[in-house]
Structures are given as structure tokens and as C-alpha cells.
Design a protein that fits this description.
Strand order of the largest sheet: 1-2
Radius of gyration: 21 Å
Largest sheet: 2 strands, antiparallel
Oligomer: single chain
Strand content: 5-15%
CATH class of the largest domain: Mainly Alpha
Length: 133
């Protein structure tokens, strides 16, 4: 795309002074940085993905209240993490994180393990054990 064709549509940046840096072809035919406030297609995709995350958070809250999942499931969604990412941050095996997402195994976690999760989510152990939705 040419530098003068860089989209400047409404986006998540439109309420701020922020711009996204993208690369476009300048008048000499070389790639150069250009600022964009966004474009419609990207905004639609971003909005849909954020809606999907909100739906998964709502489902996690319902599952936690019904004793199916642990609060880790909610905070994992809140921080936009998947099991491999969370496992690497906490420093434990993925299969253990998957197990800790269940309500009963979560209740038996050691203080040390709870502290590791709390640090990753930047909350207290008390907030992890008793989230306020």
C-alpha cells in the first residue's frame, strides 16, 4: 500500500492521540513507516475478539459460582492467557495448570502455588481465592 493510502478510519485509537505504526511504500518505492488511526476491518475483528473474551469470562464466572471451575479460569481470561502461556509464567507443567482450573484441585493448592498464580495475575492470594465479580 502506498503511504498516502494508509487508512485513517475509526478505531480503538480514535479517542486518543495514539497512532499505529505500519509500513507503506513511499513516493520513491521504498518501505517507510506511516501512522494510522486504524481501519474498519481491523476494528471489526478486534471488537469481535473482545466480545468473545467477555463471553468466555462470563462463562468462567458462571462455572466458578457453580463449583465447576476455579477462579484461575476467570483471571486467565481476564489477562488473555491460554494454558501454555500461564504455565510458562507460573513455572509449572501445563497438565497441572489444566488440573488447577478445576474447582476441587484448586481448593487443595498449597500457599506457595497460590502465591505464584497471584503474582502472575498481579493480585493478592485472597483475591485469587475469593474473587469479586
Amino acid at each position: 500500500m502506498k503511504k498516502e493510502e494508509v487508512p485513517q478510519d475509526e478505531s480503538c485509537f480514535s479517542d486518543t492521540e495514539m497512532k499505529e505504526v505500519i509500513y507503506a511504500v513511499d513516493k520513491d518505492g521504498k518501505y517507510d513507516k506511516a501512522l494510522s488511526s486504524g481501519w474498519e476491518t481491523k476494528t471489526i475483528v478486534l471488537d469481535k475478539s473482545l466480545e468473545h473474551i467477555e463471553e468466555r469470562k462470563a462463562q468462567a464466572i458462571a462455572n466458578i459460582k457453580n463449583g465447576i471451575q476455579s477462579p484461575i479460569a476467570y483471571f486467565m481470561e481476564e489477562h488473555r492467557m491460554d494454558i501454555p502461556t500461564l504455565a510458562s509464567y507460573v513455572g509449572i507443567w501445563q497438565w497441572r495448570v489444566k488440573r488447577h482450573l478445576k474447582a476441587k484441585p484448586f481448593q487443595r493448592l498449597s500457599a506457595k502455588t497460590l502465591q505464584r498464580y497471584a503474582e502472575v495475575f498481579e493480585i493478592s492470594v485472597s483475591e485469587l481465592k475469593h474473587p469479586k465479580f
